[in-house]
Write a structure and sequence with these properties.
The protein is of the alpha+beta class. It is 19% helix and 35% strand. The chain has four domains: 100 residues, Trypsin-like serine proteases (Thrombin, subunit H), CATH 2.40.10.10; 103 residues, Thrombin, subunit H, CATH 2.40.10; 87 residues, Pdz3 Domain (Roll), CATH 2.30.42; 93 residues, PDZ domain (Pdz3 Domain). A hairpin with a 4-residue loop joins strand 4 and strand 5. It is globular and about 90 Å long.
Length: 458
């Protein structure tokens, strides 16, 4: 009996000791710290991520091979069997639903370029066939369309209100892994001159962007679209914290034109411009430290009709500050043909406001046969503002040279730029006509690639 009581007492004591031990520590984080809830992006992302889609494309790509393999006699002689001339290519990217009612998705031009089939995978696993509405290679923006059933769209923010240091989140499909979210800040604004696209006004961010993120969303902490992820600087092939996104305001303007016309119909003022450097500011005796200087006005262009002159300094376009030549090109290039534009300029140190109507620039052309018999077979045209050479070279572009023509036999080639004839500078087809007409011999200075040549045509 005493033994049973002793055993019962031991058990009770053991249970009491166990009950007195501290509760096991759980691995979960506390819901609050000092009474404040822990910060999290999860609720915002739960609303935003369904609007970001994965895009898979398939296309036929021509194979490079030796031209001898296309010769039936050569293949027969060496008993070479027929070989395929094309292969199937696949690629992945991302896109953003911006109109749930009509099924419009924004992505990059390079994501869908040349695609035979486009498959869009939604966040809920649905796979939908898509078709291209239109695209713009110059800005790398494309619009595709999917069936508009139970879609979620991202609202567009005013990207002009972004500031360096604002928190942003990138959503996309890096390396084909599936939807991935990364966060960072706006590292810089208005990045241009990178040589990535024809029209550049990038948002730079350190939010991780990798191959496959192209066309994905860059959003603010309210879940609004501030940019479309487009490019990275990656010397080692991966993310190094320098990514670029196309601002939502630019995307919105381009999307409107693409949906209406299938492409972007850019207006042109008809000017060549350059940055307003401190040296130029001193030369013009003006206090401005930003803006774009008009270096050349194309005859009969919208700028010429509006009264713009060489040496005018453009400070604002439609009340938008112009930082440099690239921002002026972007501001005008986003306007449709026929749109009115207000330009705040400085002329001889005096402020002026000039109203212009944006036109469609058509470069002046000239047939070599009409200029000089030695130039027969070549077609010459002015270097317009929309040309990649605009503002970089002054001269006349050789647009085409007919094989076997006098111009071809003399050594002229397509894409050569004539900068002078008979020791006189040439910057337009009008000047080319005046100098070349009636000359018995032509001494031509031209630029070919990165080199300069001198040709004598007798």
């Amino acid at each position: 009996m005493n033994t049973q009581r002793s055993l019962l007492s031991t058990i009770v004591l053991a249970l009491s000791l166990i009950a007195a031990l501290p509760a096991p520590i759980l691995a979960a984080l506390p819901a609050t710290v000092e009474g404040q809830p822990l910060p999290t992006l999860a609720p915002m992302l739960e609303r935003a991520t369904p609007a970001v889609v994965n895009i898979a494309t398939e296309s036929q790509v021509a194979l490079r091979r030796n031209p001898l393999l296309d010769d039936p006699f050569f293949r027969h002689f060496f008993n070479i069997p027929d070989q395929p001339r094309q292969r199937r290519a696949q690629s992945v990217g991302s896109g953003v639903v911006v109109d749930a009612q009509r099924g419009y998705v924004i992505t990059n031009h390079h994501v869908v370029e040349g695609a035979d089939t486009i498959t869009v995978t939604l966040n809920d696993g649905r796979q939908l066939d898509a078709k291209v509405i239109g695209s713009d290679p110059e800005s790398d923006v494309a619009v595709i369309r999917i069936p508009s059933e139970n879609l979620t769209a991202l609202p567009l923010a005013d990207s002009d209100r972004l500031r360096v240091g604002d928190f942003v989140v990138a959503i996309g499909n890096p390396f084909g892994l599936g939807q991935t979210v990364t966060s960072g800040i706006v590292s810089a604004l208005g990045r241009t001159g990178l040589g990535i696209q024809g029209y550049e006004d990038f948002i730079q961010t350190d939010a991780s962007i990798n191959p496959g993120n192209s066309g994905g969303a860059l959003i603010n902490l309210r879940g609004e679209l501030v940019g479309i992820n487009s490019a990275i600087i990656a010397p080692g092939g991966g993310n190094v914290g320098i990514g670029f996104a196309i601002p939502s305001n630019m995307v919105s303007r381009l999307m409107k034109q693409i949906i209406e016309h299938g492409s972007v119909q850019r207006g042109q003022l008809g000017v060549s411009v350059q940055d307003l450097t401190p040296e130029l500011a001193r030369a013009f005796n003006i206090p401005a430290n930003q803006g774009a200087v008009i270096a050349q006005v194309v005859p009969r262009s919208a700028a010429a009709k509006a009264g713009l002159r060489e040496g005018d300094v453009v400070l604002r376009v439609n009340n938008r500050t112009i930082r440099d030549a690239s921002s002026l090109r972007n501001a005008v290039g986003l306007l449709e043909v026929g749109a009115s534009v207000l330009l705040d300029i400085l002329r001889d140190g005096r402020p002026l406001t000039i109203k212009a109507k944006v036109g469609e620039y058509v470069p002046d052309k000239a047939e070599g046969d009409d200029l000089n018999p030695r130039l027969a077979g070549a077609v010459f045209e002015d270097i317009g503002p929309s040309s990649p050479l605009g503002g970089k070279l002054q001269g006349v572009l050789i647009a085409r040279v007919e094989s076997g023509s006098p111009a071809a036999r003399a050594g002229l080639r397509s894409n050569d730029v004539i900068t002078g004839i008979n020791r006189q500078r040439v910057s337009s087809t009008d000047e080319l006509r005046r100098i070349a007409a009636g000359s018995n011999a032509l001494l031509i200075n031209l630029i070919r690639g990165r080199g300069e040549l001198l040709l004598v045509l007798r």
